[in-house]
From TrEMBL:
Pfam families: 2OG-FeII_Oxy, DIOX_N. This is Fe2OG dioxygenase domain-containing protein. Belongs to the iron/ascorbate-dependent oxidoreductase family. Transmembrane segments: none annotated. It comes from Aphanomyces euteiches. InterPro entries: DIOX_N, IPNS-like_FE2OG_OXY, IPNS-like_sf, Iron_ascorbate_oxido_reductase, Oxoglu/Fe-dep_dioxygenase_dom. GO terms for molecular function: metal ion binding; oxidoreductase activity. Keywords: Iron, Metal-binding, Oxidoreductase. Residues 186-297 form the Fe2OG dioxygenase domain.
Length: 353
């Protein structure tokens, strides 16, 4: 049975006021959670509630606009997620490499990437990969920057929190505390506000608010909808059973992505998760809104195996050409697209029989 106890990470948030013993205890709890579940809840993370409340309010106002207004923020040529995406237009099932043929997800989103502040550093545009990963953000033109200001503030606070978590992870993995900092200074993280509209009518067979999948990037920090009493966010445990994550005020959910599983040579888990449709009428008539920060490395960061995870006699990296973060990410997404094509072809053949 999966039990959930938030891990108090204040000994790392306020490191000067804590002891080595306290930090080692936090690292031990985090390491156990990530080795066994790939998920954890964190409390006392140092982010004030006003930061996410501002995002929730501004995003709620945006999602309440007309479809035409929202679609004006659709970056249809963006090579990475930016701006608005309408409900029923995306399918996260393709990332699972398992169930590829589900209907599209019942969620609309607004997403942003790195804040460059008119940077002239050639690093951000020197290569096609840089131009892709640092693609410009797109914003509503008539909301007096309410959504932009709120999301950019939240983005910066999540970057600070991700640095705290990276320090914890470094302790867990017995590497220098700045090991990850050197690979995430000019990070490529993505912030997504996810709005799950009320389910007013019937849905297609197998259609969920967000289909089963694993995240692609390093790890994700999720601010849940604290009004969600239906346990819609679920993870798949080691027995293959779906477990609802509790919603605890002022607590964030952290889950690992496929990149970190690769980086740790499989020592830490990237766990399948999904957002279910509420079973009761009251839940189906209620909307849900969460905020997810997907942590990405520098696009050219080398994904050299973490030493404590990569023994020479048993290492899946051994003998491979060293990959950069962006090369690994593109390969992972290409795997998903290839599998999707195979699944569609198999489904088409079965219909012809």
């Amino acid at each position: 049975m999966t039990t959930w106890t938030p891990i108090d990470i204040s000994p790392f948030v306020h490191a000067a006021d804590s002891s080595d013993v306290e930090r080692r205890q936090v690292a031990a709890e985090v390491s156990h959670a990530l080795e066994t579940m790939g998920f954890l809840l964190i409390s006392n993370h140092g982010v004030d509630s006003s930061v996410w409340e501002s995002v929730q309010a501004a995003a709620s106002s945006f999602f309440g606009r007309s479809d035409d207004d929202k679609k004006a923020c659709f970056a249809n040529r963006a090579p990475v997620p930016r701006g608005y995406s309408a409900s029923g237009k995306e399918n996260f099932a393709i990332l699972s490499l398992k169930d590829q043929t589900r209907p599209n997800d019942l969620v609309e989103k607004f997403r942003m990437g790195p804040i460059l502040d008119e940077s002239t550093d050639p690093y951000y545009s020197a290569t096609k990969d840089a131009q892709m990963m640092f693609y410009p953000n797109i914003w509503p033109q008539d909301d007096e920057q309410a959504l932009q200001d709120a999301m950019e503030c939240y983005y910066r606070r999540m970057h600070e929190l991700s640095n705290v978590l990276f320090r914890i992870f470094a302790h867990c993995l017995d590497v220098p505390e700045d090991f990850f900092k050197a690979r995430t200074t000019r990070h490529t993280s993505i912030l997504s506000v996810n709005h799950y509209p009320p389910l007013d009518g019937p849905v297609q067979r197998g259609q969920l608010r967000l289909a089963q999948h694993t995240d692609v990037d390093i790890f994700t920090i999720v601010c849940p909808d604290y009004a969600d009493v239906h346990g819609c966010l679920q993870m798949e445990d080691s027995d293959g059973k779906w477990v609802s994550l509790p919603v605890i005020p002022d607590t964030f959910v952290v889950n690992l992505g496929d990149c970190f599983k690769f980086w740790t040579n499989g020592r830490w888990q990237s766990t399948s998760h999904r957002v279910m449709n509420p079973a009761d009428d009251a839940g189906r008539q209620a909307s849900r809104q969460s905020i997810a920060y997907f942590v990405g490395a520098d696009y050219d960061a080398p994904l050299d195996c973490i030493p404590s995870c990569c023994l020479e006699q048993d290492c899946r990296h051994h003998g491979e050409t060293l990959k950069t973060y962006v090369a690994w990410r593109k390969d992972r997404i290409q795997q998903a697209m290839t599998q999707l094509k195979k699944s569609k072809e198999a489904k088409h053949r079965s219909r012809q029989k």
